[in-house]
From TrEMBL:
Record key words, sorted: Cytoplasm, Cytoplasmic vesicle, Endosome, Lipid-binding, Membrane, Protein transport, Transport
Chain ranges of the Ras-associating domain: 94-185
Subcellular location: Cytoplasmic vesicle membrane; Early endosome
CDD domains reported for this sequence: FERM-like_C_SNX17, FERM_F1_SNX17, PX_SNX17_31
Its biological purpose: Critical regulator of endosomal recycling of numerous surface proteins, including integrins, signaling receptor and channels. Binds to NPxY sequences in the cytoplasmic tails of target cargos. Associates with retriever and CCC complexes to prevent lysosomal degradation and promote cell surface recycling of numerous cargos such as integrins ITGB1, ITGB5 and their associated alpha subunits. Also required for maintenance of normal cell surface levels of APP and LRP1. Interacts with membranes containing phosphatidylinositol 3-phosphate (PtdIns(3P)).
Organism expressing this protein natively: Pandion haliaetus (Osprey)
Pfam families for the chain: PX, SNX17-27-31_F1_FERM, SNX17-31_F2_FERM, SNX17_FERM_C
UniProt-annotated stretches for the region Disordered: 381-410
Protein name, entry field: Sorting nexin-17
Ranges of residues in domain PX: 1-88
Coiled coil location: none
Organism placement in taxonomy: Eukaryota, Metazoa, Chordata, Craniata, Vertebrata
One MF term in the entry's GO annotations: phosphatidylinositol binding
UniProt similarity note: Belongs to the sorting nexin family.
Main location: membrane
């Protein structure tokens, strides 16, 4: 069997024959010209070298399928991963009670099936809270790790290819919890959420919690005003005031390491307002702050290195330390791209944040609304709404290759970009094209911006 790691965690174990079955089903549904080539069957027993070669080919195949907007979002592919996850963890389908946390520490208990996917669980929580259907799409379920001081460290947003109950119980650690939080970035959407009592309460609880944890910066005078609004239970006014504060609506990540402005700097990264904000401690102990706009990132990638475990096959792969890095290529000035790397166990979550910021920008550009981004159930089948169709995954970029101009291909796809003679970025050339997330929201810098 092959171990499939998703987001640095063992998701499932599958056999070659199961993957071949998935491949054949995808070909039947989408046609042979859409589905990538599959590693061929062999008549004789494979040698160790051939086994390793097949493993690499299968890995490339799964990445190519996942990154194709049609195949990767298909019910066929996602249900295959969900079923494999359930079989690997040997959790039978049965009714269970799952505890989901709210930002204020309140627990919502929902009765679900172990085989319920992320969207089913989200709907169950919304229904328990009386959150109206058209507001469900503004919220998401996140896997978090509770820290000693009662705060949360974000592991990832739960995805459509996983079963939340299985994901959290298979970690065998009570520190891991599922929490409900808003999942949009633009605070103008708060107005939609505040129209409804339950939406307002959820948003208020999250804002209070973020201020208490020091995620939103407050000075003495603002703190006094907020306190008095809290005593009057003026929730809308409280949120309106909070919206004016620094880091409102941002997700704050655990301290980690970056190579910007120099190698080995300690940094606290926050994501929000279509940017990654860096608070960097330089080797001189000086603290500097700056932001990287998502519209200036040409592309990004997450790389992980999993050390080979020599232990028995039964030993838990979660125990070996996975080193994760998020690197993005940033347009520093009109003709200078530079790679910036963040080394953090939360690299996946950072990448998911970047992708969702880009998706939201594209939905806004196409005139769609976030309300419609939530996938509707039609006769039990999942349908994506029209506005979501506008958010196609970006084209895959070729890996940087010093022998050719890397920008030509991209800028021809992005009509809004005029990049003249961009110099080559220094980057490891060993990364294949499938590791890149190209960025549809990428914009060049014109003379007037400088």
């Amino acid at each position: 069997a092959y171990n499939i790691h998703v987001n640095g965690v063992l998701h499932c174990r599958v056999r070659y024959s199961q993957l071949l079955g998935l491949h054949e089903q995808l070909r039947k549904e989408y046609g042979a010209n859409v589905v990538p080539a599959f590693p061929p069957k062999k008549i004789f027993t494979l040698t160790p070298a051939e086994v390793e070669q097949r493993r690499e080919q299968l890995e490339k195949y799964m990445q190519a399928v996942r990154q194709d907007p049609t195949l990767g979002g298909s019910e066929t592919f996602n249900s295959f991963l969900r079923k494999a996850q359930q079989e690997t963890q040997q959790i039978p389908t049965e009714e269970v009670v799952l505890e989901v946390l709210l930002s204020n520490g309140q627990k919502v208990k929902v009765t679900i099936l172990t085989s319920d996917q992320t969207e089913d669980v989200l709907e169950a929580v919304a229904s328990k809270l009386d959150l109206p259907d058209d507001l469900v799409g503004y919220f998401s379920l996140f896997l978090v790790r509770e820290t000693k001081d009662g705060a949360f460290s974000f592991v990832r947003k739960l995805q459509e290819f996983e079963l939340p109950y299985v994901s959290v119980t298979s970690l065998h650690n009570p520190e891991f919890r599922i929490i409900l939080r808003k999942s949009y970035w633009d605070s103008s959407y708060d107005d939609d959420v505040m129209e409804h009592r339950v939406g307002l309460n959820l948003l208020y609880a999250q804002t209070v919690s973020d201020i208490e944890h020091g995620w939103i910066l407050v000075n003495k005078e603002q703190h006094r005003q907020l306190k008095s609004l809290q005593e009057k239970v003026s929730k809308k006014e409280f949120i309106r005031l909070a919206q004016t504060l620094k880091y409102y609506g941002y997700l704050k990540f655990d301290p980690c390491i970056t190579d910007f402005p120099e190698k080995g700097c300690h940094v606290v990264v926050s994501a929000g307002n279509n940017e990654l904000n860096f608070q960097v401690r330089l080797p001189s102990e000086q603290i500097k702050e700056g932001s990287f706009k998502v519209t200036r990132m040409r592309c990004w990638r997450v790389t992980s290195s999993v050390p080979m475990s020599n232990g028995p096959s039964g030993s838990s792969p979660a125990k070996s330390e996975v080193k994760l890095e998020l690197a993005f290529e940033y347009l520093m000035s009109k003709d200078r791209l530079q790679w910036v790397t963040i080394t953090s166990p939360q690299a996946i979550m950072l990448s998911i944040c970047l992708q969702s910021m880009v998706d939201e920008l594209m939905v806004k550009k196409s005139g769609g609304s976030i309300r419609k981004m939530f996938r509707r159930r039609v006769n039990g089948a999942l349908r994506r709404s029209d506005s979501q169709q506008a958010v196609k995954s970006p084209p895959l970029l070729d890996s940087p290759d010093a022998s050719r101009e890397p920008m030509a291909k991209l800028s021809s796809k992005l009509t809004s970009v005029s990049l003249r003679g961009i110099s080559h970025s220094s980057s490891a050339n060993d990364v294949g094209a499938n590791d890149f997330h190209g960025n549809y929201a990428f914009e060049g810098i014109g003379d007037e911006d400088l």
